[in-house]
Amino acid sequence: MDNAFGRESRVPLKDPEARRAYKATYYAAHREEKRARVAAYDAAHPGRQRNWQKLGWTPDMVALEFIRLDGECPICGILMDWEGPRKYRPHLDHDHISGEVRGLLCHMCNVGLGHFLDNPTTLRSAARYLEDPRSEIGNGITDGQRACGTLIP
C-alpha cells in the first residue's frame, strides 16, 4: 500500500485493527533491538535525564506510586504496563507551572490533560460536550477565554 511519500508501506495504515496487530507483532519481534538502541542512545548522552529525574523523583518513588495505585490509571482505570505499548505505560503527571508532581497516569490520560492545557474549566466543558454535543456553545467557559484556556488578547 502507498504511503504519503508514494512508497509502499509495510504498516497497514487504513485498518486500525490490522495496524495494531502489525505494531504488536513488530514490537515483539524487535524488542531487544529497540532496547539496545535506547541503551546506546543513553550511553551516548550521559547527561540526559528522564522526566521523573528532572522532577526530583527516584526510581523507587515511581515504583512505590505505581504500587500504591495497584498499577491502575487514576483517571481511566486502565491497567498500566511498563513494557507494553506506549499508551499503556505510566507517565509522571506534573503541573507545568509549579513543577509539582501530581502522580502517575497512563500515557493517554497524561497527554489528554496536556492537550487541554491542564485547564479544569475546559475539561469540564469537554465532558459536558461529550454528554450532550447539541448543548449551548461554550459550555461554561467564561467570557474572555478561548476553549484552549488562553485569554483572548
Task: Describe the protein's architecture and organization.
The chain is mostly helical. It has a domain at 1-48. It has helices spanning 16-44, 51-54, 59-68, 107-115, 120-131; strands spanning 90-94, 101-106. The protein has a two-stranded antiparallel ribbon. Residues 1-5 and 143-147 have low confidence and may be disordered.
Which term fits the overall shape? globular
Record the strand order, biggest sheet: 1-2
Sheet-strand content, in percent, reads 5-15%
Radius of gyration: 20 Å
Number of strands: 2
SSE arrangement:
Layout: H1 16-44, H2 51-54, H3 59-68, E1 90-94, E2 101-106, H4 107-115, H5 120-131
Antiparallel strand pairs: 1-2
What's the quick description here?
The chain has a domain at about 1-50. It is mainly α and about 150 residues long. Helices cover about 40% and strands about 5% of the residues.
Task: Name the descriptors.
mainly alpha; two-stranded antiparallel ribbon; globular; disordered N terminus; 153 residues
